[in-house]
Amino acid sequence: MTMEIAFRAALLAWLAADPALASGLNAIVEEAPLRTALPWLALTASASIDWGTKDGAGREIRVALELNYRGDDPLSESALVAAVERRIESLPATQPGFRLVTLTFLRARAERRGEARRALVLEYRARVLAG
Predict the structure, then answer these.
(1) How large is the average pLDDT for residues 73-97?
(2) What does pTM read for this prediction?
(3) Which of 37-41, 63-67, 80-84, 115-119 has the lowest mean pLDDT?
(4) What is the sign of the dihedral through the CA atoms of 103, 91, 2 and 36?
(5) What per-residue confidence (pLDDT) applies to 74?
(6) Domain tally for the chain?
(7) Could you tell me the pLDDT band of residue 1, with boundaries at 50, 70 and 90?
(8) What is the C-alpha to C-alpha distance for residues 37 and 23, in angstroms, rounded to an integer?
(9) Domain CATH for 49
(10) Looking at beta carbons, which pairs linking 11-14 to residues 24 or more positions away fall under 8 Å?
């Protein structure tokens, strides 16, 4: 479980350290915020399973990040979505407590939630080894 928590923290810190994302989003947080103006990005879920080797501990961690924004046009925040994806996929391999072996995009889901609110969920799989 420690590697999952460390991975979540590293990913959120990496996203928050990006100047373009920090200026384009009102929050980059671990849970969906209750009173934050749109747009915001939250790491809403994760799950992990064993991915260790004979001589080392490891985890396969799946995460879901949810981007909430407002717009009548489904493409209104396409540049922001692309920036989020690029930043996630550029997470450095060497992190405190673990080493990222692979980070793979799994799927995305988009939905309209009324009042021109939109949500995009991005799901990734990370394979990490204790470091």
Answers:
(1) 92
(2) 0.93
(3) 115-119
(4) negative
(5) 72
(6) 1
(7) low
(8) 13
(9) 3.30.2000.30
(10) 11/43, 11/63, 11/88, 11/91, 12/43, 14/87, 14/88, 14/91, 14/92
What residue spans of the chain are helical by DSSP H? 2-16, 19-24, 78-89
Give Cα separations from 89 to 8, 46, 55, 123 (angstroms): 14, 17, 27, 12
* HSE-up (13 A, CA, CB side) for residue 54: 0
Q: Is the pLDDT of residue 75 over 80?
A: no
Range of the domain at 77: 2-130
| Terminal CA-CA length for the chain | 14
Distant-in-sequence contacts of 102-105, Cβ < 8 A, 24+ apart: 102/126, 102/127, 103/127
Whole-number Cα distances in Å, 91 to 8, 109, 110? 12, 22, 24
Query: Interior CA angle at 8 toward 12 and 85, to 5°?
Result: 55
Nearest alpha carbon to residue 89 among 17, 23, 11, 21? 11
